[in-house]
Design brief:
The complex is a heterotrimer of chains A (464), B (374) and C (100). Chain A is 36% helix and 22% strand. Chain A has 464 residues and is of the alpha/beta class. In chain A, strands 1, 2, 3, 4, 5, 6 and 19 form a seven-stranded mixed sheet that branches. In chain A, strand 20 (382-384) and strand 21 (389-390) form a beta hairpin. Chain A is globular, with a radius of gyration of 22 Å. Chain B has two domains: 5-47 and 161-230 and 313-373, FAD/NAD(P)-binding domain; 94-154 and 231-311, D-Amino Acid Oxidase, subunit A, domain 2 (D-Amino Acid Oxidase, Chain A, domain 2). In chain B, a hairpin with a 6-residue loop joins strand 16 (318-321) and strand 17 (328-332). Chain C has one helix spanning 32-39; strands at 15-19, 22-26, 45-46, 52-53, 66-69, 72-76, 87-89. Chain C is built from one helix and seven strands; from the N terminus they run ββαβββββ. Chain C has a single domain (15-89), classed as Ubiquitin-like (UB roll). Chains A and C meet through strand 8 and helix 4 of A and helix 1 and strand 4 of C. Strand 22 of chain A pairs antiparallel with strand 15 (300-311) of chain B.
């Protein structure tokens, strides 16, 4: 017995677009999301913006445009479970999910993973201290609660960093400094991708617009100090509880005190569920991240499992929406709601939008590539936040013969805590690569998030 | 001698291969170990860490005696390994339980224990407890437990620490370990010695060769004229978030790792080479844990996993020397943790000189050729 | 020592919860992690090795925001919305079994 023809995991741009597309083509959809509302991280809490206490829009038009996607989910063919954590995919047809302490199994003919992205871990000495957060975390606090950073420093690189800088300025909480890791050299090497990027000029100019706005603010307000091509990040706790952030800028070590250090080095696909589902993954060297292997329609080697959006490959919201629609069209075709010609015809506009949007990626990926020091950080850095394992210990284990993720993990326990490697896998890989080892993707096991024993014990498995 | 030309080459750097290596190195021999890649099946990276005697060898006296000897030797073995490596193995040998929620299984197990006692005589003892006896001993035990057995020699160790310590000890004593050198071919050389060819093209030479390759044993065994063939049996485990309070008991299915996480296991299934974790087994394990110790109900499972045991045709260890190619040995067993204390001592001595240990005859391959002829 | 919140002050909310015995006011829609961050800049937990931590990712990924909520230890505070009368405790080290 099935609960819906299509189960979608994740109600971000890709998941929402796929849900409405599939529903409009006549398929029944069951949509899961961990948050209390749809939108994903990019449109987080967009539905409630008008009720927010400060009632100001400093997130921009793009963000508010998410509301129409959320509204479109009100469709007779779409059923939604919010606050639901999917912790296992079974045989490519069933999802095991937890809500309010109760786990259940739901079944469908196809499953679409639209699990989105997480920020790339930015490890450096002191990154575990209170007062160090990701830039994305600060943005979530602004979106969900109107909680604004106080005298924060934004440090790192990536389009999101500049977007957040602008939003902070507009919200009246400008960062006291912008410490960029981006270098002039990178800009040059990224420039060779310009011809491709011009096809996606709209997105590109938007990005440049943010940069311009930061500059203007700097000139007008003259309060935001800007440092570029920085490296050597280090955070220390000072007596009053604030962070003493030091970094190298033009060969000089700078130290700035701040209550809140917000770091960012781009985003990477969230692959725990896709890896645990058993489909193959590959390393994307330009994006410096693992991603599931799919065809152009987002279909994996397991024909009932599909992946769309940033969880498949980082491309941003518009690309994710296009990918969500394309994947949904292919799924409804397999479900028999649409023949092949109809599918291809309906896919045409999105196919070219998708290709156009993807053409800007090499430029962005190169421009905002993570600094080597965050891929393979200094010895004293804690790499695994859960088990508190340092880079030095990982290097030692490799020196003693550990030849991959599993051997490092079994000797040090990194990745065995509650986050299950979400905050350390990429760093361990960076250190392995640095030591001349090219490892396979680390294995992900279920439950992909901690679930209580009693809850698992009470799970009812329906007979086949 | 160069790295690629050793007195002993051991194929397999799991707990079994490393234990033998340690024994040989301690006797002054020169050892190189060849191991596969990070993604290869590896029982040593997925096991439960029990040092366990209860009911072992009930139906095969030599195994009961061998296991008993191993368990008795563990404290000394652990002490010397800890001194050598400064790694705390977290050995706890204060006795272990077997819990039962089914009275028929409880009865059958008692019969096995009785049988084992016949083999071991006064050397071992055990206790039989009713569910109420047990609940008097530990207030937290659940109502569904109908009884338990207890053996004072049983215990556990941190299996990953043991693995690390063996690895480190072997390196400290001058052993060489080459990972990513999965052995494809072993050729006996005229006039003695062996040539080993790795999948990556590397060649190694040795006077003697020991197969301790776990599930990689079969094709290499044939090349050296061994008849033993092993098969995988999947076991699945759960590990919880860490708990500060100590679990008051060790059992064969529920134990607390010294770092705080609680491991739940003890299943066996025929699943070929698939080492995935399966949903129905996860549910069964969770139900078992919660019925034995209901306080566990609110403790979260961080991860489940499957790992493959290595079983010989009759499930007992095989310690064999090739008749056709002297100097080639095959070692395979399940319970490599329990037996590690003997693998690095008596077994290593037998490999050095077979006249040392006549008791090991019982574990030779002859038992398979006889049964296949019958 | 109570460290000032690392965020700008907001108008007082109307949902009251207790954090380590102190009554704190939060807004509807706040997560418990938000309430903790808005209240102070102090660590919201100490690890097994006694290192101080505060919520880090705010999206359920890093597990650094774990706190005890209404007697249940190791809850992901960034994934749970505040409710009137909630009792929140900042953990120090590993959890114990839940007290009945």
């Amino acid at each position: 017995m099935i609960d819906a023809e299509l189960i979608i995991i994740g109600a971000g741009p890709a998941g929402m677009a796929a849900a409405t597309t599939a529903a409009n083509e006549g398929a029944t959809v069951l949509l899961f999301d961990e948050q209390p509302q749809a939108g994903g991280q990019i449109y987080r809490n967009v539905k409630n913006q008008s009720n927010r206490l400060d009632n100001k829009n400093y997130f921009g038009k793009d963000y508010l445009s998410g509301k129409k996607h959320v509204d479109a989910l009100e469709h007779e063919n779409i059923k939604i479970e919010y606050g639901a954590t999917v912790w296992r995919i079974e045989d490519g047809r069933h999802v095991v999910w937890s809500k309010n302490g109760i786990s259940k199994i739901s079944s469908a003919k196809h499953i679409l993973l639209a699990t989105g992205a997480q920020e790339r871990p930015v490890p450096f000495p002191g990154w575990t201290l209170p007062g160090v957060m990701t830039a994305g975390a600060a943005q979530i606090l602004m979106k969900t609660s109107g909680l604004l950073p106080r005298d924060a420093i934004l440090a790192g690189s990536g389009p999101l960093l500049y977007l957040i800088a602008v939003q902070m300025i507009d919200a009246g909480a400008p960062p006291k400094a912008l410490v960029e890791t981006q270098t002039f050299k990178k800009t040059l090497s990224a420039a060779k991708h310009l011809p491709n990027a011009l096809f996606a000029a709209n997105t590109l100019f938007k990005g440049l617009g943010f940069l311009r706005k930061i500059k203007e603010a700097k000139i007008k307000v003259a309060k935001i100090k800007r440092y570029t091509a920085c490296s050597g990040f280090r955070a220390e706790e000072s007596v009053d509880g604030s962070i003493e952030f030091s970094f190298d800028y033009r060969n000089v070590n700078h130290k700035i005190k701040t209550p809140l250090l917000l770091t960012h080095q781009g985003i990477v696909p969230s692959t725990h569920l896709s890896r645990a589902s058993g489909i193959s993954h590959r390393w994307n060297e330009t994006q410096k991240a693992f991603q599931p292997i799919t065809d152009l329609w987002g279909q994996s080697e397991t024909p009932t499992i599909h992946v769309a959006g940033d969880g498949a490959s980082i491309g941003g919201a518009e690309t994710a929406q296009a990918a969500g629609r394309l994947t949904a069209l292919n799924i409804v075709h397999h479900l028999g709601h649409l023949n092949k010609d109809e599918r291809d015809k309906k896919a045409k506009a999105d196919r070219s939008l998708f290709n156009r949007a993807l053409s800007i990626r090499p430029l962005l990926d190169n421009l905002y590539a993570p600094l080597p020091e965050f891929l393979s950080p200094p010895n004293e850095t804690i790499v695994c936040r859960c088990e508190e394992v340092t880079a030095s210990e990982i290097r030692q284990s490799i020196a003693e013969g550990a030849a991959g993720h599993r051997q490092v993990k079994t000797s040090l326990r990194n990745g065995m805590g509650p986050c299950q490697g979400r905050m350390c896998d990429l760093t361990v890989r960076g250190i392995l690569i640095d030591s001349g080892i090219n490892p396979d993707a680390p294995r992900a096991r279920t439950p992909i998030k901690p679930i209580k024993l009693g809850e698992i014990a009470n799970l009812k498995i329906p007979p086949e | 001698m160069s790295d690629k030309n050793a007195e002993f080459i051991i194929v397999g750097a799991g707990v079994v291969g490393l234990s033998i290596a340690l024994g040989l190195l301690q006797k002054g021999h020169q050892v190189t170990i060849l191991d596969g890649g990070d993604s290869d099946l590896s029982a040593s990276k997925g096991n439960f860490g029990l040092i366990w005697l209860q009911a072992k060898g009930s139906h095969f006296a030599p195994y009961a005696k061998w296991t008993h000897k191993a368990v008795k030797k563990w404290p000394d073995f652990a002490k010397s390994l800890e001194e050598l490596t400064q790694i705390n193995l977290a050995l706890e040998q204060t006795g272990g339980y077997e819990f039962f929620t089914d009275s028929n299984e409880f009865k059958a197990f008692q019969a096995d224990l009785k049988q084992q006692q016949i083999h071991l005589g006064k050397k071992s003892s055990y206790e039989i407890l009713t569910g109420d006896d047990l609940r008097k001993r530990y207030a937290g035990i659940g109502d569904k437990v109908v009884g338990a057995t207890f053996c004072p020699l049983d215990g556990h160790v941190n299996p990953l620490k043991l693995f690390s310590a063996l690895h480190s000890a072997v390196l400290t004593l001058g052993g060489k370990i080459f990972s990513n050198n999965k052995v494809k071919n072993i050729t006996p050389l005229q006039g003695g010695g062996f040539k080993l060819l790795a999948l990556n093209g590397n060649r190694f030479y040795s006077d003697r060769v020991i197969l301790a390759a776990g599930l990689g044993t079969n094709s290499l065994a044939k090349q050296l004229d061994f008849v033993t063939q092993v098969r995988p049996q999947r076991g699945e485990l759960l590990i919880t978030e860490k708990i500060a309070e100590r679990l008051p008991f060790v059992s064969s299915t529920i134990r607390q790792v010294n770092e705080g996480g609680i491991q739940i296991g003890g299943t066996s299934e025929e699943a070929g080479l698939d080492d995935s974790e399966s949903l129905n087994v996860m549910v069964n394990l969770a139900q078992h844990a919660v019925s034995v110790y209901p306080q566990l109900s609110n403790v979260r499972v961080n991860r489940a996993w499957g790992a493959l045991r290595i079983l010989s045709p009759d499930g007992y260890p095989v310690y064999a020397q090739s008749h056709q190619y002297p100097g080639a040995y095959l070692v395979t067993c399940h319970s490599g943790i329990t037996l590690a204390s003997l693998h690095c001592s008596l077994l290593a001595e037998w490999i050095i000189d077979a006249s040392n240990q006549s008791t090991l005859e019982a574990f030779s391959e002859n038992r398979f050729s006889i049964s296949s002829a019958a | 020592m109570k460290i000032d919140s690392r965020f700008q002050a907001r108008p007082k909310g109307n949902i009251s919860l207790s954090i380590d015995g102190e009554i704190v006011f939060a807004h509807k829609g706040d997560t418990v992690a938000t309430a903790l961050l808005a209240d102070s800049g102090n660590a919201s937990r100490k690890t097994n090795k006694n290192s101080p931590r505060t919520p880090f990712c705010m999206m359920g990924v890093c597990f650094d925001c774990l706190v005890e909520i209404n007697g249940s230890p190791n809850e992901q505070s960034c994934m749970i919305q505040v409710e009137e009368g909630m009792v929140v405790k900042r953990p120090k080290g590993l959890r114990n079994y839940e007290q009945k």
